[in-house]
Every structure is written in C-alpha cells, then in structure tokens.
Amino acid sequence: MSSDLEHPSSNSFDTQYDSNNRKSAFKSALSVIPRKARIVLSIVGVTIAVITLLVLSQPEAKKRPIPETTVKVDVIQVAPSDYPIVVNTSGTIQADTRGNLVSQIRGEIVSVSDNFKTGGTFSKGDVLIEVDQRDYQAALSQAAAAVSQAQATFRQEQANAKQAIRDWERLGNTGTPPELVARKPQLSAARAQLASAEANLETAKLNLERTRIKAPYTGRVIRRDAVLGQYLSVGTVVAEIFATDRVEARLPLSQDEFAQLGLDNLSNPNADPFNVTLSSEVGGTRYTWDALVTRTDSTFDLNTRQIDIIASVIDPFNTTGNKPPLRIGQFVNARIQGRTVENAFVIPNKALREGSYVFAADNLKLVRVPVKVLWQDDQNALIESGLEAGRLVVTTSLNSTLAGAKVKLSDPGLAQPNSAPEQPESQPAETAPVTTESADENVAPLEPTADAGESNGDSATEAVSTAESTSADN
Fold this sequence. Notes:
Residues 102-237 form the Multidrug resistance protein MdtA-like barrel-sandwich hybrid domain. The protein is of the alpha+beta class. It has four domains: 2-57, no CATH class; 71-76 and 345-473, conserved putative lor/sdh protein from methanococcus maripaludis s2 fold; 101-242, no CATH class; 244-342, Elongation Factor Tu (Ef-tu), domain 3, CATH 2.40.30. It has six helices and 23 strands. Strands 3-12-15-14-13-16 form a six-stranded antiparallel beta barrel. The protein has a four-stranded antiparallel beta sheet with strand order 4-11-9-6, with no helix packed on it. β13 (275-282) and β14 (285-296) form a beta hairpin. α3 packs antiparallel against α4 (184-210). The two termini are 78 Å apart.
C-alpha cells in the first residue's frame, strides 16, 4: 500500500525534474546568445507573425469584367490636293555691286564732296574728289601746241608732194613718179606725227578730266580712305562704295530643301520665277520685302553641307513707302516658294506620329497606318503614300498602346457610312463638338494638344486607367 502511494509521487518528481532540466537547458542556451541578438530575433518573430496574420485575414477581391473604353477623338477627312513647297531660312543682306574707288592719276587732293564720308550717299556722276589740275592743264596746253605744229608740218608735206609731182611732169616724164620723187615717205611721217600729237592731246584731256573723281553709279560710301590734302598715286584706293539700286540676300539651304524646291530648273528660261519674301523686325515692327531668286552657288559648303542661293531685291533703299531701307549686313528671315506638288495628301504635323505613321478611324476603331512623308514644314506634312482619299485621320494626341481601341468622333457627321454607331430610337445622335463633355461613363474624352509626340498620350492612358479602377470599385 505504501509502495502504491509512493509511485505517483515518484513520477511527479521525475516530471518536475525533467521540466527543471529543460528550463535550465533553455536558460543556458539563451545565456549563450547575446542580448542584442535576442532582441533582434524577437522583433523578427513578431513581424513574421503580424504579416502572416494580415495575409490570412485579407479578403478575396471579386473580379469583374472591365467594360471596353471608348476614346473620343478629332479627325480630318483627307483628300488629294496641290500644295506649294515653302522653305523658311535666314541670311544676311549683301551689296549686289560693291568695290573700291581708286585714283587713276597722281596729285594732291584739293577738294572733297560733303557726301564723301562713311555712310554718305551719292548719285551717278557726282564729283567726290578733286585733284590739283595745274600740271594737267599745262600738259594739255603742250599737247594742243604739239598738235598744231604737227598739223602745219603735215600741210607743208602735202604741198611739197604736189609740187614734186608737177616738176616731174614738167620735165616731160610720163607714168607714175617714184615714191621718193612724190615725197610719199615724208608725207606718211608727217601724218603719223600728227596722229601721235592728237593722241597725246586726248590723253592730256582724259588726265585733266580724271582730276575730278566721279561716282560710277548711285550708291553709298562704306569706308573713306582719303582726306583733303592727301597726295594720291595711280591706283590709290580712296573709298569703298556700293550701289543702292539692288541688294541681294545669301540664303543657305540643305540638299533636301534645294531638291524639293526644284531649284535645278532655275537655269531654264521657261521656268516660273522663285519668289522670296524677306522679313525683318525694325523698331519692334516687322517689315517684308519681295525678292526673286537669281542664281545659286555652284558647290555645297564643305563644312555646313549647305548651298547658298542668292535672292535679289530691286530698289531696296526706296524710302517713299512706309518701310525702312534694307541695309548691308542686316539679318533677314526668308520664305522661299518653290514647286507645287500635285495630288498630295496634306495633314497637320500633330497627326503624324514619330514621323512614320498616323492613326486612322476605320469602322470606329483606332488603326495604325504607316505612311511615307514627302515633305514637312512648320505646320503640315505631305504624305506621298499610305493614305487614300476619304480616310479619317486622327489629329488628337494619343498613346501608341491605344491601337485597336474603339473611338468616338467629336464630329459624327464625318463618320463613314459603314461605321456609323447605332443610336437608340429614343436617343438622338450626338452632335456636340469636341469641347463638350460626354455623358457616357465609358467614354474618355481627350483634349487635343499642339504637340504630336507620343509623350503627350498620357491623358488617354489615364482615362483608360480611370475606367478600369471605377469598374473594380463597383
């Protein structure tokens, strides 16, 4: 009986002893781990427990089908038309006639014109400089005296020749007398001496006239190199001048611009003239001048790979109008009108995507259409191939990922007959312009932007994302 009573107590003692041993072992193991490590392990354990609890308690979202979103767009209906190629460039004004005014005689400057100064204006024939004439007047008098003496000698020889022939005949000789008897050599020498004296006289007159340096044309003085009292030699530059009846603008063009304008036909006399409109801002006001392309350079510039064309402006200094004169060195913008392209499809630049394709609304779906661009200016692009007459080209800026989406035209009147949307009998067709907000909750209206780049398509993507989130919430 006593042994039975002792047995339970022995088992309890053993159990308690084992528990104490385990606790002691656990405490011994914990004592081996540093205190900081124990804190980190506790935090990690609590974090794992919290995350597990959150994952297990998360409610399952109900998946519902997302309704298809319709994109509202602006479109244009393309048709072939004739389009003139226009190139915009810029250049500087240069003188058509420009050169140095030089002295042709020697002498001291004794007089100058009031207009003979930098920036001065003059007319053709105006005397700009006068050189001392006294030496040339004396030379003219000497030349005139030499002519008179030569004339007298020539007349004397003529009389001697006639007398010699009469003496020959009086002596009974017949036939033609010899040249020496007829004094022909002496007569020829006197004639030559007279011609030389007359030539010297003309030279003296010309030198005297050259003492008055005159303007060869109507123009202006760029630079004056001579002053009163200066001694001039033959060939001395007295001024740099230019003519004001015509100026020209040198306008650089690229090889593609040169070819598209059709300037290779400039040498053809039957070709139409190439009109140029020059413009420049003076005093806050922009003025324009009409010009014509007269010639081109023969080679391309090796550094810029461009070729210059020359446009001439007639009477650029006419101040009778309400515009200022064109001045040498003035910077101008130029608009050059070249050949006309026939039967080309013209679309605005904002409709062209990445320079290689457009979006078309075919059967009220957004279709990506590759195109080949013939020419592009600041506003429009000429499409050589890829489009057909009557096709609806989208001008609204869209993201390229929307290809294949349904579209809603801002102008339903442009809808194709086979693609017109069905309308309930009780609901009239929508005719609101693009600026009107759509009442359809599945329509994502997009406002067109001036930029045709793909980066501006975020509004369309945002509209699609909004529709998706709305459907998920419902």
